[in-house]
Write a structure and sequence with these properties.
about 400 residues; alpha/beta; seven-stranded mixed β-sheet; 13 helices; about 10% strand; binds pyridoxal-5'-phosphate
């Protein structure tokens, strides 16, 4: 009789959910108030407190958060906004959806974030804003971006989808520019299923954001409900959206906030363990954390580089990286490319005739990043197993 050993299954991530979250999502069912009610407000309060923001505005996703924040900051038809060339596509899409133009800037291959030395050359008289991304939990270099923006009269919107727990010289991501947006998708450190948040340093923007997420209403359903004259609808004096978070998500987010510090510590510990296990592996570039930054480790993203990636070598290296990833998949270990480069995606290449090679670092990052599993319940033994299998898969891929 043949005996098979069960293969160890290691997913790329796993949300940290327990009885606290289970209990929390049931609470709105008792109150009967299911949308943008007291639990959303509680989540917003805890989020603002954690990040040091004045206040926070919950939405349905980071994409919708970015959409209404860019709308509030102003993107007139034809206006240009500078975005990194390696980021999730919605960073650029929301600008295009508002009738603007996403102008791509190559990234720094060490940090995967916007290459600040290239931004100034992309500014034209149509530029209205800069949209840096804090990719994988590492802040973009915000000081030179802010300096440039102030000098040229531009707004700065931070895409902090991955930036929860990411700090830049003592400031939490999202609190540095005019506004910052977060994601609570299950691939992020804390989750509400789908969900997002906007924080802003400009007090006058907050009311606009609260109105925009609620069809442009002058007051919320809850305010109407609690006030006399609630039988009358609000006024709707701006073009808004329905980007309201449900109270089930709010309650879940609030429970996740209570464990956020623990989750972030556990992720940072996992990242440190990978750093040690991979210290002698010279064909992978590990994540970097420049002086004065705290990495939030939304993901542990490495760069596959058995040799210097160039425009001549990256496709060959890409094929080899994929063989390694497939080999790991067959052994039950999930890996992923970091994210993608919109400059290589159909909508943008067709609309603007972009040659992806114009953005060599974004292209290399798109083709050669390799994300390792990272989540609270990932044990030290699991991590050793991942790294041993990774080394063996690399040896087999030659
Ligand atoms: C950099 C970046 N921006 C925006 C988003 C969109 O977030 P959401 O899925 O919450 O809309 C993501 C999602 O992964 C992201 O990584």
């Amino acid at each position: 009789m043949s005996r098979t050993t069960a293969i160890r299954k290691i997913p790329i991530t796993k949300p940290y959910l327990g009885p606290e979250e289970r209990e929390a999502v049931l609470k709105p069912l008792d109150t009967g108030w299911l949308v943008q009610g007291p639990y959303v407000a509680e989540f917003e309060r805890k989020f603002a407190e954690f990040t040091g923001a004045r206040s926070a505005v919950a939405t349905t996703s980071c994409t919708t958060a970015l959409h209404m924040a860019a709308d509030a900051l102003g993107v007139s038809p034809g206006a240009e906004v500078i975005v990194p060339a390696f980021t999730w596509v919605s960073t650029a899409n929301i600008i295009e959806s508002l009738g603007g133009r996403a102008v791509f800037c190559d990234v720094d291959i060490r940090t995967y974030n916007i290459d600040v030395s290239r931004v100034a050359d992309l500014i034209t008289d149509r530029t209205v804003g800069i949209l840096p991304v804090h990719l994988f939990g590492l802040c973009a270099d915000m000081d030179p971006i802010l300096e440039l923006a102030r000098a040229r009269g531009l707004w700065v919107l931070e895409d902090s989808a991955c930036g929860f727990g990411a700090w830049y010289h003592g400031k939490h991501s999202g609190t540095i520019g005019d506004a910052g947006c977060f994601s609570f998708h299950p691939r992020k450190s804390i989750t509400t299923g789908e969900g997002g948040m906007v924080i802003t340093t400009r007090p006058e923007l907050e009311a606009v954001l609260r109105s925009l997420r609620d069809h442009g209403a002058s007051r919320t359903d809850l305010q109407r409900h609690n006030a006399k004259g609630g039988f009358l609808l609000a006024d709707y004096d701006r073009l808004g959206y329905n980007y309201r978070m449900t109270d089930l998500q709010g309650a879940l987010g609030s429970a996740q906030m209570d464990r956020a510090s623990f989750v972030l510590r556990a992720r940072a510990e996992g990242a440190r363990r990978y750093d040690q296990l991979l210290a002698a592996v010279d064909w992978l570039a590990r994540p970097v954390t420049p002086q004065g930054y705290v990495h939030g480790y939304q993901a542990y993203v490495t760069l596959f580089r058995p040799e210097e990636p160039t425009l001549a070598s990256y496709e060959r290296l890409h094929e080899r990286r994929n063989r390694v990833m497939q080999d790991l998949e067959e052994r039950g270990i999930a890996t992923r490319q970091g994210t993608h480069a919109p400059i290589a995606l159909g909508y943008y290449t067709k609309k603007y005739g972009i040659k992806a090679e114009t953005y060599p670092n974004a292209l290399v990052a798109d083709r050669l990043t390799l994300t390792l599993p990272l989540y609270v319940d990932l044990s030290a033994d699991d991590q050793e197993y991942v790294v041993n299998e990774l080394k063996a898969a690399f040896a087999r891929s030659a």
